[in-house]
Amino acid sequence: MGQLNAGVIPVTPFQQNCTVLFDTDDKTGVIIDPGGDVPVILDVLDRNKILPAAIWITHGHVDHVGGAMELKEALGLEIIGPHIADRPLLDNVESQAQRFGLAEARNCSPDRFLEDGDVVSFGSHVFSVLHCPGHAPGHVVYFNAVAKFAHVGDVLFRGSVGRTDLAFGDHETLIRSIKEKLLPLGDDVGFICGHGPGGKLGEERRTNPFLT
Ligand SMILES: [Zn+2]
Ligand SMILES: [Zn+2]
Question: Could you give phi then psi for residue 165, rounded to 5 degrees?
């Protein structure tokens, strides 16, 4: 069994961190949040000889799911996640795209929705699913306890938190998700987020102005 490794591909004008998680030995992996620029994602997978097992989605915003159906068709993969509460967003990816002036985004039909406490995996790497509403009602976070790693999507950023002024957003719910679900995972847990640099949960617990 190899190590869990991650590569980030900024996609769409929102510079969303499409993330490839993969095993350093056998190169199996998953693609999290292919929001767009699918040819770029395919090229990165190809050049690094990644063997993709599935597409995982954190939430239904266009910059995270706009390219999911195209990537699914290109690679023959299932789309897993988010929580079904994001179905109103997933069914309206194309209208979200029009609002933000993005081309080529498509509505998204996941093969499987996730619930809080579900377990997903690829190869020998196992992730627990945390339902963390607030930024989006069906937002999920993927947590790997062995590697002390979480992909937190747009729930938490370094020094900030997800915006809640979009449809279905709720700031108090978001802060509760972070304090009750994310921070208890441990100060030493590293995270990748949907935009910008990742960090450590402990650093956010101590210094993030939205949490203190
Ligand atoms: Zn978002
Ligand atoms: Zn985003």
Answer: -95, 0
